[in-house]
Every structure is written in structure tokens, then in C-alpha cells.
Amino acid sequence: xxxxxxxxxxxxxxxxxxxxxxxxxxxxxxxxxxxxxxxxxxxxxxxxxxxxxxxxxxxxxxxxxxxxxxxxxxxxxxxxxxxxxxxxxxxxxxxxxxxxxxxxxxxxxxxxxxxxxxxxxxxxxxxxxxxxxxxxxxxxxxxxxxxxxxxxxxxxxxxxxxxxxxxxxxxxxxxxxxxxxxxxxxxxxxxxxxxxxxxxxxxxxxxxxxxxxxxxxxxxxxxxxxxxxxxxxxxxxxxxxxxxxxxxxxxxxxxxxxxxxxxxxxxxxxxxxxxxxxxxxxxxxxxxxxxxxxxxxxxxxxxxxxxxxxxxxxxxxxxxxxxxxxxxxxxxxxxxxxxxxxxxxxxxxxxxxxxxxxxxxxxxxxxxxxxxxxxxxxxxxxxxxxxxxxxxxxxxxxxxxxxxxxxxxxxxxxxxxxxxxxxxxxxxxxxxxxxxxxxxxxxxxxxxxxxxxxxxxxxxxxxxxxxxxxxxxxxxxxxxx
Amino acid sequence: xxxxxxxxxxxxxxxxxxxxxxxxxxxxxxxxxxxxxxxxxxxxxxxxxxxxxxxxxxxxxxxxxxxxxxxxxxxxxxxxxxxxxxxxxxxxxxxxxxxxxxxxxxxxxxxxxxxxxxxxxxxxxxxxxxxxxxxxxxxxxxxxxxxxxxxxxxxxxxxxxxxxxxxxxxxxxxxxxxxxxxxxxxxxxxxxxxxxxxxxxxxxxxxxxxxxxxxxxxxxxxxxxxxxxxxxxxxxxxxxxxxxxxxxxxxxxxxxxxxxxxxxxxxxxxxxxxxxxxxxxxxxxxxxxxxxxxxxxxxxxxxxxxxxxxxxxxxxxxxxxxxxxxxxxxxxxxxxxxxxxxxxxxxxxxxxxxxxxxxxxxxxxxxxxxxxxxxxxxxxxxxxxxxxxxxxxxxxxxxxxxxxxxxxxxxxxxxxxxxxxxxxxxxxxxxxxxxxxxxxxxxxxxxxxxxxxxxxxxxxxxxxxxxxxxxxxxxxxxxxx
Lengths: 481, 481
Known about the structure:
The structure is a homodimer. The first copy, chain A, is of the alpha+beta class.
């Protein structure tokens, strides 16, 4: 009986057990990789004071924030004093300002929590969704960018992705290009919005939009000359075999050269190009350079980025698997002085969509809810069954206990429906002989074993009597196996 | 600079890394135990349609629900259409009604998520806090109560608790007692509110409150005769040694006898006493009976419980570590037909408070954020350091990389401040010899090893080159070690 009364709120989702296990697997792998890079976990409240969030995400963002009514006598004023977390970056900036004396000089944190946006729900777009953020605060060094790129790349590889491309660009490089092309500063945002559509609408389309947005003919020609050459394929997805790696390396070299040439002595722009060169050089040391492609058309919105910007894409997903960049001024909005910062955010829902479509989840992620089910023979043997279940659990097995004395056929049917591989039966005959029967639910085979040897017998049947460690395997990446 | 601008919202908390690790440890142990009982994870949205929540928690509950303003043009109406999750039981009832055809006949789920209540914040009382719920739907058998009690008890034992008492009672038994004492039905709630204070205010105080609430003299006398005898110590905290176990067993026997005597032929009450007797008998099979004490004064609010009610206490905490009971009618509010249900909820925040005060966390729960830190000697050796960090990470070590070329003393100081036990240095001399230096940050000792043998050397120094499995140890209970 699905009715409006029992559905989750619009754009939000219930996660039944199989869904939760998939989500926990992905989160576990990402956490494990981020911990290897020395990142530490942070959690902030779902609810923030409304002033903390308002004005941080632009006009559109303000409208998409879920606002919470004042309580008690103030409820009828219709005013809001609290709001739901909209991203993980603004709360991080608040935390850094609030606890600056307790935090290390370089604060490396990851944060994997839901955020809420009152967007119109659509396929793959939800009003409650998780962000997996990783950020470094306190250093302007490009080592930070290189580490973030390597960590995000490692996380995706650990999840089984092999065909993603990491596109990088730089906000100052964009400024340099636009200045040198002769676009006045006031029109930079307009020009970037138009250029961002190059892949979708082509040179002609971009030219029309640039014109409509009031960019003069000369600037348009210089921009399109720079961007719309054949070598600037915007998306380049690939399996990183040696030939492609060489191609991409050569491509990046050519692109750096073209940037140097076009930007020339433009100071801000040239310093951005130097940053990009360094990121490429540092990424070589970790091997992440094999997937990085310089892409001068990458803009990634304009909110708070100030330096390198990054986006990771795969072919079969519109939009990105994740993105990030440097934002050296955001913490200053809370702290009154700037703290250099750079971060990257993986999109959990998109990763799960692609992994599900490609069947990338290991078979045991959505395993049976129990290793074995203990039946209840009759009202008199309830205690016996509870004791048996209790004993097997103390050995580390996951044991379901059928909750009622019932027909055995019904109990078997229930075990089958839950996919539980083995069922243990203690009937009157077995009890008299101090034995129990084990039924293999797949083969239907049933055998008797001594009551005392049940744990060993189950383990021989392929059910390792697991220790806690083994049970926690599930969050591991494939590369760990 | 702590200012109102950077503080979390009132009654809510930021969790810095050491806090998150403690919380994740406790959640990990609880999950592991619940999985051993065949429970499966469920997650529901933080936000529910407001009708889903209103009217389910009584008048006081309605006022404590955080309500979310309508969006867009409707924002100015000041109306709310959504609300924040207030507990995990009502969403569970909604889920069972919504997905009844997809869920197994007996739905055993655990759910560990935050809830929000606009309570006045106080010590240990927050506006955002986690509940750890475990529920079984679909069976009226007392095996369910016994399993829930055993699971919650196992979880607390796995966390290191040994001195808790599990108090049980039954709503029908309360009805029977009050009926037989001559309290009219309309006054039952009043009488229970008064009786609930027996431990705090004594017989005289309860008598006064009963009188004030309009309970007649005869009924008051009969109630106080029944409750206010010496053998009914309300709280009985103990280490379950054999002597105490025998005492508690004898106590429960006596109490069952007194209930039978007092309730007599009162049908509903007598059936409740039978349930309690069964729970005690079944709990004996799992060993959980050693901690169970029958307590006829236990009332646990009156919202939706219909049968057995349960509460777990320790001496050094006012309030409970957790509680629960049977609620056979709640799902019917969504589904239109009743589904038997019973659940238990552990209070994460209270567990953490007691564990912190008692120093119950294993030492490695709040470990260093990394096993080793790699330094950066100078601008020319950045790549070398990145490559080294990358190599150690691929071996499963958690490696922090100092992000900048800097004075070595500063880099050591930073490693110290983060508690990282080992630091690796690749200076010019070392590079020339293809060696690296390892500094033990505790002893100050520094030694040279071959570059190729670094992984082995670190492992010899007591830093196991951990596999993914070992890293995931942290969630384990002590009983697994």
C-alpha cells in the first residue's frame, strides 16, 4: 500500500538494507583511502544558524536552502532562524574559525555527510544527498593540490574505476586568458558562462552567446582562436595505457606552451600557469599525472574558487564524479583573516549510479543478512534454539533466529527468501542424540552433526567462523584483496 | 576567535576528529553485534512530510519538532510542509507500510541516525543526537523480546560495560495492577506518572501526588502496599557475580508470585505476567537473564507501547542507557492494519558520556592521524617525497606528507603536535646514498635505512605495514580481541 501518506518526502529516499550496504561499502573505501593520506574525520551539525549559510552560495543558493521555523511562541511569526546544511565547505570554514587554536597548523579533514538542497528533483538529482569532502587548510603549496588529486584518484581506483579523466584549470589562468583576449573584467563571468558550453554548442554557438552577452568582435575572435582548435578536445576519456599516457603528456605540454604564449607577461595569469605546471610535475611523482588533462575551458562555477580548479569525469555520466579547487578567501569570511585552503568533493550518489549501472559492486557487498538461521522445533525447544543461536553468535557468526515455533517448511521458506545459506534444526530426534541437523539451502542437502561440533561443521561447510576483522572486510577496496 | 558567528547552532555540536573516532568506534561495535543477530541496516531521510510526524509524539512532542518553511513563493506564508526526524520508530512504521511487499515476513532492522528535538539544551541533552534502534516487526512471540534484550546487552558488554541492569515490565501488567487496586481507567496515566517517582520522592511523596491527582484513598493504599515494600528496590546495580545472579533470580521469582497474587484473574494483566515469565525463561538460554530485573514501577512514558517495556540503567547516570518495548499498534496508523512490533533504542550520547568519564575507550581509538610523516627537504626534492609517501601508502600505511619545503625543526614540531610516531627524512646526503632516515618521535632516535627497505624497516619498528583489514579493526568490540 504505497500512498502519499507513507512515501518519503519529495526528492528524498529511504534506503532499504541492500541500498545501505552499497552506500556503506563506497563510503568505507573512500574513508580508508583518505585515512591513508593522513586526513582526519570531521562532523558538523545538519542544522546551522541561518546567517552562517545565507549569502555564501549566491542568489540561487539562498533560494535552495531549507529554512527552519522559529519555535514556540515565535512559530507564528513565520520567521526562520536555522537552516539545513547546504554543503560541507561553509561549515568547515566556520569550524576552522571557531577552533583555530585547537586545530593543527595544516588541518587535513575529510567529511562524509548529507546535505540538503530544495532543487527540483530529477533523475539522479535528490534533495538529500551525500558529499564526500576532503580539504587541506593552511598551505598555499601546490603539494596540496597534487595530494588531493592523488587521493581522489586512488579512491576511485579502489572502487574499481579505471576510465576517468581528471581535468584541471586555474582561475587566474582564466582571468589571464580573458584579459589578454580583451574581455573587460565586468564581462569575465559572462564570457566564462558562454565558453563553458563549447563542447555542447560548438564554436559558432559560443560565438553567438558571447555576442549576445556583449563581448566585442575582436575579443570573441581571439578567444575562439585560442579555444576552438582541434587539439582542445574538451573531454578525453581513456584507459590509461602507455600510448594514451604519452599522448596526454604531450597534449599537456603543448597546452602549457600555448597558455604561456597567449597569456605572456600577464602576471596573475602567468603565476596560474606556473601552479598548473607544478601540479603536473608533482602528480608525476604519485602516478596521478597519467589521468590529468589540462582543460582551459573548465570553469566550475565562480563561487569561491581562487586558484587551481579540478573536475573528474567519466564518459557515461553527464556531469562529474567530483570536483574541487583552491579557495583561499572563504575562511576569511568567518575568521577576519584569510587561511589558504583547497578541497575536493566526490559525489557519492553519482558514484553509486555509475557503479550500479556497470555492475561494479563486489558480490559480497549485498550478502545475506545472516550466515545461518536457527529454527524453532516447537514451543518446548525455544530455549534450546536460543542457546544454540547464542553460542554460534559468540563464535562470530551472524545468526538469525526464527522467532516462533512454526512448520519447518515455513521456516525454510523464510530462510530462502532472505538468502540465508544454512539452516540449523534441533528436532526431538536430534536432541535425544545430542545432535543437530544442518541444511544447505542451496543444495537442499541435510546432514547430522554432533551438537558440540556444530561450529566446526559450519566452518567446514565453507562458512568461516569469522572474527570481527573478517566481518569488517566489506569496506575494503579491491586493491586490498 | 570564538564568536556567535562561528559557533554551531544552539544545542548542536561540531565533532572534531578525536570525537568522531570515539563515536565511530561505539557505532561500529553496536553495528557488529546487531549484525550477529541477523539485523539489517535501514536509513531514512532526515526530513519527513510534516503530517508523517505530527500527532505521533503527543502534544509536547508536536512542539519539539523542528518544522521546515515552504519554499519559493510559499515561503512568505510562514507555513511548514516538512519537519526533521524526531525519532527512528515513526519513520520505521512508515517504511514498513510503504514497502510491505519488498520486506521479509519478519523485518529485523537496525538504524543508527541522528534525530532532532527542540528541547531546552542542558548537560547531556542536545538538539541533535543519535539513536541506535533495533526492531523486529511481524511476530508477537516473546522470543523477539528475549533477542532484543540479549542483543542490547551484548552490545553494552562488547563496549566494556559490566554493571548495567535491565529492568523489564509490561503495559498490561500495569493495567492489571491499577485495575485491581481500584484506580479508574481514566486515571491510569495520572497514577503512573505519580508512581514513576517512587524512587525519587518515596511512598509519602507518591501518596500526596496520587491524592492530588484524584486517586481515592483505598486505591492509594492498595497501590502503596504493593509497591512500597522493601524488596522492591527500584534500581539494583551490580556486577553479575554468582551470588548476585542467584539473588536477582530469587527476587524475580518472588516478584512474579506477587504479581500473580495481586492481579489474580484479571485477564489482560495475567497475560502480561505470562509474557514476562516467558521473557525471563528465554533470556536464561542466552545468559541475558543474569542482568534482568522485574520492576513493576517501570512505566516508560505511555506513547505507543502495548506490551513488554524495557530500560537499561547504570548507577552513575541519571536516566537510562537505552530503552524500548512492544508497540503492536503503531504501524497500523500508516498501514491500516496492525503489524506486531518490538524495539530497543540505545542512547549513543549517553553511552559516550559514561565511557568517557570511566575511561572505557581502548587506547587506539583515538590514535594518531597517521603512522608516519614524510618531510620535504627542499623545493627540489618535493617529487621524491611525494613518491615516497605514495609508495608507503600503497603498502597500506597511513602517511601524512608535510605540504611544503620548510625547516626540518618545524616539520618535526608539526609531526609531534599531531602525535605521529615516525618521521621519514630524505635529505641530500641520504639521496646520494639511496637511503632515507627514520626518526622515532618519542625516543628522538634517528637511523638510516636503504630506500628500498623502508617499508620493512618501519614494520620492524613496530609499525605493522597494515593491510586494509587491520586498519578496520577499530570498530571491534573488546570481546573480539
